[in-house]
Amino acid sequence: MAREGRMYIKFVTGCLFYMLLFTVYFLYMILGDDDSVVTIDESEFAVSINDHQRDFSTTIQKLHQREKQNSVDNLIHSRWNVLDLGSVQVAGRWRQKRGFLTIGIPSVKRARGAEYLLQTIRYIISRTTLKEKESIVLLVFLANFDTDYNAAVLKNISARYGDYMNSGFLLVMQVPEKYYPPLTNLKRNYNDPPNQVAWRSKQNVDYAFMFFYGRNISEYYIQIEDDVMPAFGFVKDIRAFILKNYKNPWVCLEFSLLGFIGKLFKSGVLDKLARYLILFYDEQPCDWLINYFLSSVTQTRHIYNRKSLFQHKGIWSSSSEKSKQGPFKAYDIYFREGKLNNE
């Protein structure tokens, strides 16, 4: 016990000795050899403080920039992650061979909506030849959150056009609501009613899903609507216009003046277009976003076919706000239906 006490005293004494030694060294560094107090010039001190303030401010700015960039990166990745093929439900047979043209038709529940869609499918079938059908895929998107309505429409399509679904000519896709980004409490950039903002934002997401799913089906992709009528020989005219612009760099050729109807893309760009629309889905309507997208991929002008190949037939909009104004029909004055060709 006495031995342990002596060891403890030695330990404490040693600690005190080294503390005293450190104190002497510290006073020596501050007071100097002549025991005079060291003075610091105020101007030098001010410069030093300012330098530290600038360094600190720069560091804070960099941290804010990094935080902002991380927020942007997280936003981009969170929105791009919406585009997951596992979320797409498809009825119909996928063709192994890549075709010439995919015709995309988004369809939304509204007055006479199912009737419009069935009529448009019938138009496409009747105005394409058997040979053309071998290299065309009609991609219909039932873009409704009402699953019972979708089931009824799909049942109707299958009953009427089941053979075309089995042949791979007709595919019908759906995406459950849970895979969509938020569609409420969105920015009202143009002071539009919330319902209108939600409608146009959802339309951007609908199109993004279609472009992403359809990007590897055919060489080209054209977007129309579920209430249009194609001209006779429209596939032949599309081929001719593509050939006419073969030597010109382009991303989008246009076969109608109305909205997004008749816009044809090289399938290789659909992935970028889908991601672009999903990234800015809540900013602007798709008819406006496409202009910015084309500029970003160096297509600085619209390239129109001399005649429109698709005429708008519906009178009821898929927008609830527009439907409140009553029936309205938009005509493309450059549309020419042409004549039946029995090739």
Automatic annotation (TrEMBL):
Domain MGAT4 conserved region residues, every copy: 69-324
Superkingdom classification of source: Eukaryota
Transmembrane segments: 7-31
UniProt keyword terms in alphabetical order: Membrane, Transmembrane, Transmembrane helix
Stored Pfam families: MGAT4_cons
One example of a Gene Ontology biological process annotation: protein N-linked glycosylation
Keyword Transmembrane helix (UniProt): yes
Gene Ontology molecular function terms on file: acetylglucosaminyltransferase activity
Isomerase as UniProt keyword: no
Protein name: Alpha-1,3-mannosyl-glycoprotein 4-beta-N-acetylglucosaminyltransferase C isoform X1
Taxonomic source organism: Lingula anatina
